[in-house]
Write a structure and sequence with these properties.
This protein is mainly beta. Helix content is 14%, strand content 44%. The chain is built from 4 helices and 18 strands. Strands 6-2-3-4-18-17-16-10-14 form a 9-stranded antiparallel beta sheet. Strands 5-1-7-8-9 form a 5-stranded antiparallel beta sheet, covered by helices on one side. The longest helix has 11 residues. The protein is elongated, with a radius of gyration of 20 Å. It is found in: Nucleus. One of its GO terms (cellular component) is PCNA complex. This is DNA sliding clamp PCNA.
């Protein structure tokens, strides 16, 4: 039996909006500790890793490990049927080959029930090793989204350069070039602070398009963390309060 309840269904909608352009379908692994999703995007350039803690739900029951193969476009259609303040309950026990979504209005005067057929998807869990990154940057997630929205107008790839002076984002194209440099600041407003820790200089190039897609997770968290190592994937991490985290790994561009 699996059952999970969220006081606001809009939270799950934000999760789907943050991954829908990277994944067409995915397997949600449900355990007594929470829900995990791990999948490569359709181009096999980025890896999405989501964890929703059982403690982040208003009610959570999972008496055995189950895998829910879901078409994300179909799930998104169901989620958009709910009001933003509706209470959401997700169930999988009466019909094992489907998952049920129940939306209740806050006043309990309206209840909607939807069933979605599950898919048989191949799933391989990848062990992601803990890494001591050479450069770690923490910044407002809104600023991260703004930077890559601007850079996308100038080029397709961005060179990220980390040094003791700060982190620079550079791109160029037919229109011209753009360079944005961020240095640590001493603001007392923790939500606006930029924190940069450098162990060694790093220079790497990544596809801007993917970074703009990662930024769609901005509504989930006020801050985002970027972690880099030479010749390794970039980690873009959103901590979702006490509910869990959403991590994106992006392979660097390699010169031909």
């Amino acid at each position: 039996m699996f059952e999970a309840r969220l006081h606001q269904s809009s939270f799950l909608l934000k999760i789907l909006e943050a991954i829908k352009e990277l994944l067409n379908e995915a397997t949600f692994q449900c355990t007594q500790n929470g829900i995990q999703l791990q999948a490569m995007d359709t181009s096999h350039v980025s890896l999405i890793s989501l964890f929703l803690s059982q403690g982040g739900f208003d009610n959570y029951k999972c008496d055995r490990n189950i895998s829910l193969g879901i078409n994300l476009s179909s799930m998104l259609k169901i989620m958009k049927c709910a009001g933003s303040d509706d209470i959401l309950t997700i169930k999988n026990h009466e019909e094992p080959d489907s998952i049920t979504f129940i939306f209740e209005s806050q006043s309990y005067d309206k209840v909607s029930n939807y069933q979605l057929r599950l898919m048989n998807l191949e799933h391989e869990h990848l062990d992601i090793p803990e890494t001591d990154y050479a450069c770690v940057m923490k910044m407002p997630s809104s600023e991260f989204a703004r930077i890559f929205k601007m850079l996308l107008q100038f080029g397709e790839t961005v060179e990220i350069s980390c040094s003791k002076e700060g982190v620079k984002f550079s791109t160029s194209g037919d229109l011209g070039s753009a360079n944005i440099k961020l240095a640590p600041n001493n603001t007392t407003d923790s939500d606006k602070a930029v924190f940069i820790e450098i162990q060694e200089p790093v220079v790497a190039t990544f596809a801007i398009r993917y970074l703009t897609l990662f930024a769609k997770a901005t509504p989930l968290a006020l801050r985002v963390q970027l972690s880099l190592m030479p010749d390794s994937p970039l980690l873009v991490e959103y901590q979702i309060g006490d509910k869990g985290h959403l991590k994106y790994y992006l392979a660097p561009k390699v010169d031909d």
